[in-house]
């Protein structure tokens, strides 16, 4: 294999960043903040195996990554830990040392081969990560240098100690905070879906299901910002307390309160907008609870992901009648179809976060039975934790906590 040209240079400042489809023309970074961290300059590169930064911390020749070796919605059955060579970035690519990776409900749809049924195992798992650029190809060096911190998402490969990422699919971030990771998929989904499909108006009633989770927490906040009355479903009082703290007017802990009865009794006029992630009977209830001209946004159907079919049965025979009688609508939303809105969504959310106007709750498993999700192998525990409904906020794995003396804490 011919190695691509590696960067050999001294300290060129990164050009204005982000890139490709998401790039914010004319700004320093998509997130609007020029990284304040000192740059590390490559002092030695080799065309063969690895290269070094000025600290002399060499990149190892091998690393661990999670690979889907068998198609299954059972993540533990589908995915194996493999030790492989650290990959070499191509000309327009970055080699990122992952610090945090994000867990998504759809990780098990991906391992079941539901994203692209034509792809056969083995293939890499994990949608999103945040880490440090430790190597890069020549054309990628026009915008990045070693030591830059970037976040990225894409199809597969984040569940690894090192990931090669196309530079144009990376987003510079000002610091190594896991909160930035919450915005890439979870936050962006809520922001764009609410904006494009919700058509929220002040005073309307909005129902968010799985409200205390990765994407639900943002749907709650954006609905509240739009002046709506917000109802959020969750499975514990602790989550209910969190929902209150982010502006949810009526958290409903469905493990102690009957959701259908509560909605009927407290919202007899119906719900104007539903941000629906659970599917099955919850989706049916949401359809039946719509107000006249109500809008139901299908975000996901997590209750079915662990089944062989990937979806829980939905009794939709009379759906056309129900929608017609209420002039209501039901629309699906899939983030990759709304890439044209992505740049604005990220920039806006980052500004809100910087001003303290947006809570980006992260759950690294500190309260989990076996403790914090540290190291790549804990991705398995983190997926189980989410599917047990234990998470409060976005589930994040700390792949490589910093060692003493590391500047990127
Ligand atoms: N369309 C898109 O582009 C897009 C993008 C991102 C996410 N999503 C969807 O958004 C939903 C949430 O995803 P996420 O990654 O943000 O996960 P999450 O909300 O952080 O975690 C999942 C939560 O779902 C709730 N839940 C309800 N019924 C469940 C069941 N039967 N099994 C497991 N969990 C259940 C649990 O909260 P409670 O116990 O409190 O109910 C659990 O904490 C998923 O449906 C996902 O597919 C869609």
Automatic annotation (TrEMBL):
SUPFAM superfamilies xrefs: GroES-like, NAD(P)-binding Rossmann-fold domains
A single Pfam family it belongs to is ADH_N
Domain of life of the native organism? Eukaryota
| Protein name (record) | Prostaglandin reductase 3
- Note the CDD domains from the entry: Mgc45594_like
Enoyl reductase (ER) domain location, by residue?
A: 74-397
**Family recorded in the similarity comment:** Belongs to the zinc-containing alcohol dehydrogenase family. Quinone oxidoreductase subfamily.
Q: Which InterPro entries match?
A: ADH-like_C, ADH-like_N, ER, GroES-like_sf, NAD(P)-bd_dom_sf, Quin_OxRdtase/zeta-crystal_CS, Zn-ADH-like_protein
Query: From which source organism is this entry?
Result: Xenotaenia resolanae
């Amino acid at each position: 294999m011919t190695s691509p040209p590696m960067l050999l240079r001294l300290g060129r400042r990164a050009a204005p960043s982000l890139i490709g489809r998401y790039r914010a023309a004319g700004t320093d970074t998509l997130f609007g903040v020029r990284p304040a961290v000192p740059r590390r300059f490559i002092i030695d590169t080799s065309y063969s195996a690895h290269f070094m930064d000025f600290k002399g911390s060499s990149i190892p020749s091998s690393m661990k990554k999670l690979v889907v070796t068998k198609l299954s919605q059972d993540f533990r059955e589908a995915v194996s830990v493999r030790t492989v060579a650290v990959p070499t970035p191509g000309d327009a690519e970055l080699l990122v040392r992952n610090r945090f990776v994000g867990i998504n409900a759809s990780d098990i749809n991906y391992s079941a081969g539901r994203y692209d049924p034509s792809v056969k195992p083995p293939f890499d798992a994990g949608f999103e990560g945040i880490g440090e650029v430790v190597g890069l190809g020549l054309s990628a060096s026009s915008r990045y240098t070693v030591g830059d911190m970037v976040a990225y998402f894409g199809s597969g490969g984040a569940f690894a100690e090192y990931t090669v990422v196309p530079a144009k699919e990376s987003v510079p971030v000002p610091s190594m905070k896991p909160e930035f990771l919450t915005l890439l998929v979870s936050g962006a989904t809520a922001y764009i879906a609410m904006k494009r499909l919700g058509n929220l108006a002040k005073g309307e009633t909005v129902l968010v299901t799985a409200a205390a989770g990765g994407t639900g927490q943002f749907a709650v906040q954006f609905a509240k910002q739009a002046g709506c009355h917000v109802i959020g479903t969750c499975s514990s009082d602790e989550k209910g307390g969190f929902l209150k703290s982010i502006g949810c007017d009526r958290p409903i802990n469905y493990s102690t309160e009957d959701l259908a009865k509560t909605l009927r009794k407290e919202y007899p006029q119906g719900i104007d907008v539903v941000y629906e992630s659970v599917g099955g009977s919850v989706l049916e209830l949401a359809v039946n609870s719509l107000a006249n001209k109500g809008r139901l946004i299908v975000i996901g159907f997590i209750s079915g992901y662990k089944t062989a079919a990937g979806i829980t049965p939905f009794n939709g025979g009379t759906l056309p009648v129900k929608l017609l009688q209420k002039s209501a609508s039901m629309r699906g939303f899939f983030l990759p179809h709304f890439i044209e809105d992505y740049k604005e969504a990220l920039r806006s959310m980052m500004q809100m976060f910087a001003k303290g106007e947006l809570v980006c709750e992260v759950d690294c498993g500190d309260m989990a039975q076996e403790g914090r999700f540290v190291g790549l192998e804990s991705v398995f525990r983190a997926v189980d934790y989410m599917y047990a409904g234990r998470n409060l906020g976005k589930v994040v794995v700390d792949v490589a906590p910093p060692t003493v003396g590391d500047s990127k804490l």
